[in-house]
Amino acid sequence: MPGSIDPPVEPLRELRSPDSRATILLTGLSAAAVLGGSGDLSLIRETRGADMDWGGVYGEGVRLTGPWWIRFEDRHGARGTLPESMVWLESSRTRIRSRHETPDFYCNQEIVALAELPGIGRRLTFSNRRDDETVLRFESTFRPELAPALIEGIKPCEYDVAATSTGVRVTAFGSALEFALSTPCNGFRLNEEPWNGRSFRGALDTVTIESTVRLPPGDSATISSVIWGGVEATVRGHAERTTQLLDDAGNWATSADAARREWTARTPRLRFPAAPELERGYLLARDALRSLYFSPEPGFIGLVAGYPWYAALWCRDLAWMLPAVLWLGDAPRVAATLRSVFRFQPRAALPVMGASAGELPMQIGPGPIFLYGTSDTTLHYPEIVRRYFAHTGDDSVVQELAHHLQLAEQWARRKISPFTGLIRNGEEGVGLHEAAEQHGRVHFGFDAFDTTIWDSTDRRFHAIDIQVLWAQALDALGELAPVTSPDSDGSRWRTEAQKLRQTIGNRYWWPEENYLYDSLAEDGTPVRKVRPNALLAIADGVLPRDRAAAALIRAAQGDLDTEWGYRTLSSTDPTYNPISYHDGQVWPIASAWAIRAAFAAGQTARAVDDLQRWARQLNAEAGTLNECYRGDRAEPFNSCFLLGFSVAPILSQIFEGLWGLMPQALSRTLRVEPHFPSEWTQAAIEGLSLYGGEVTLRWERPRLTAYWKGKGPLKVQSGMQALELTDGSSGSLEYAPASEPS
């Protein structure tokens, strides 16, 4: 069995001077810290054309605070801050360390996402650098937020504040946070006014806690503080947990690191000697995806969409991320996430929420909070369930979800137009507005003309990606039929899917552009817009090979393809705007579609070039990847600095496109059809989880060797060659990459 081939990727960022606009993310399973490279939890970030401070603490799906600052005053009354005194900062996935220097003292800071509670801990060790005693006045100030992360830009107008034995507790509308300090508090300020600790209710901008530290010559002292919280019921009645946590501050980082390492050890190790940047890109993407893990409470398990303002479970985003989680070997999280999503599938219409029977939610969060109203989210999930079964062979989860899949199929069939026979999109947004109008004046922030992935632009009524999703859902239902409907072989779903693909290939073909229309109107009139969404149809195989090749050439033209990714709309379109969210900006997820399409069409060099570009972007952005970038230059605009579907779908293409891996549960077969560049001679995967066991694949041209460790047999197939492996055995096939036609 080959040894470990997983090199370290940390530290992610090292700074020798403050950089307030550097983006740093620290997460646990239910908490996160967002900050820049200045030593404080502050991050100035452009949002819709204006600078806003997105720094702070998240817990249980609630943005607990805005920025959290540390200030100090020496014995002479000179005031200082961490950014002013910072001389070094290093960030990793499990902690942030920084060093600060003043004429009187050194300060070493450690910030950790807590493993025990949904919160963030800070440890500050002050060391006297003088030959006499130094008295240091220490202040910790934060801005309370206490708004669910899925409600962007909204916060309470009134808060309740109460003193505790170790600090303060702040509550508002069912959310709460607790601040605790390891040293006695000398005083408090609310809105910069002294507070005596009595019950307070009202508007609240800042909370400040004061303390004093005495440092004899050559001595040091450590101050630990935490901010934790989320749902109010989690916080109340647990004062002893806060005290225990402060007493254990020296082990925070060790506990966080152990949890991360335990997970990492179960993920596959990859090696590409000819493409080391792709190896590192895989590791960075793997760890970025783990940073989005979210387990605030039973029934809410998954991955948040992104940071800083999408720190909630968005079910469409989950659908793009879960295949990568399966490839990373975490099938239990996928099963738990599926249960979380299907838990909120209504059996009857919920008009006030814009929900139809069988529809899956758009967003879910603790509280509970859930929103509906997309035309694509539900269509993703039959395929996700199929993938789970293909990787695990676990038919119990499929049987558990069988009725939910039936409801989802019924929901989709009600959306088929009797005039075109195609799935409609657009009614959801209209229905949500109509329902809200009956219950008061509600504004949703933007008009959702339709409810596809580009939901703030009008792509009604038959967007091409919706049709592709429906075809994939039908195929998935057909493949799952022997488990969900034992009296059916699934052929009727597969036949319907094949006919739909033929319809897409014929009716959406745009001969003048050698491309595919973006959408069709209700009467079948084509919507002539060049978008990357058509690449999903190419990846799904709806076009013959010659048309697919022509469409990829069209997509590669400079009006759509840029050096940093694919625009959401051709720059030659009259409605193109380089800072328009869905009508001109560049989204990394569109690169995932292009990579899938290129692999499907046999254009390996193009696909690998795009994979390597993605890996370089991940490295340049210190292990995160933005939601979107301007369409005219490679800079983020109105963008989360880490979005799950900027990372996960491309990560999946390393396994599905580059390695060509296709597990098939009913026959316990792993198909391996690699698409390596012709100049490559070696590649390896170690520890790929499958059917409760592990597969290792090692390729040294022309020999592909497979190792299997697990209960029961495994069949490995490549082309017309096949191996039958038993526990602990190995075997070899031959594979040599083909040269592409020039």
Topology, number of strands: 44
Main sheet record = 10 strands, antiparallel
pLDDT < 50 runs, ≥5 residues:
1-5, 442-446
CATH class of the domain at 13-259: Mainly Beta
Principal-axis shape equals globular
- For this entry, what is the oligomeric state of its chains? single chain
Determine the structural class based on helices, strands and strand pairing: alpha+beta
**What's the average pLDDT?**
91
Percent range for helical residues?
A: 25-40%
CATH topology-level name of the domain at 13-259: Beta-galactosidase, Chain A, domain 5
Discrete helix count:
17
Which CATH architecture of the domain at 13-259 is right? Distorted Sandwich
Structural overview:
It is a single chain. The chain is 29% helix and 31% strand. It has 742 residues and is an alpha+beta fold. It starts with 12 loop residues before the first strand and ends in an 8-residue tail after the last strand. Mean pLDDT is 91; it is low at 1-5 and 442-446.
Keywords:
742 residues; alpha+beta; Beta-galactosidase, Chain A, domain 5; 17 helices; 44 strands; 29% helix; 31% strand; disordered N terminus
Give a topology summary.
Layout: E1 13-15, E2 19-27, E3 31-37, E4 44-47, E5 50-53, E6 56-59, E7 62-73, E8 79-81, H1 82-85, E9 86-91, E10 95-101, E11 105-113, E12 119-128, E13 134-148, E14 159-163, E15 167-172, E16 175-181, E17 187-190, E18 193-195, E19 200-202, E20 207-215, E21 220-231, H2 232-235, H3 239-247, H4 252-264, E22 269-271, H5 276-290, E23 293-297, E24 300-303, E25 306-307, E26 313-314, H6 315-327, H7 331-342, E27 363-365, E28 369-371, H8 377-392, H9 395-413, H10 427-437, E29 462-463, H11 464-484, H12 491-507, E30 509-510, E31 515-516, E32 519-520, E33 526-527, H13 534-539, H14 545-555, E34 561-562, E35 565-566, H15 588-600, H16 604-620, E36 642-643, H17 644-658, E37 661-664, E38 669-672, E39 682-690, E40 693-700, E41 703-709, E42 714-718, E43 721-725, E44 730-734
Parallel strand pairs: 38-42
Antiparallel strand pairs: 1-9, 2-3, 3-6, 4-5, 6-7, 7-8, 7-13, 9-10, 10-11, 11-12, 12-21, 13-20, 14-15, 14-19, 15-16, 16-21, 17-18, 17-20, 22-39, 23-24, 25-36, 26-27, 27-28, 29-32, 30-31, 32-33, 34-35, 37-38, 39-40, 40-41, 41-44, 42-43
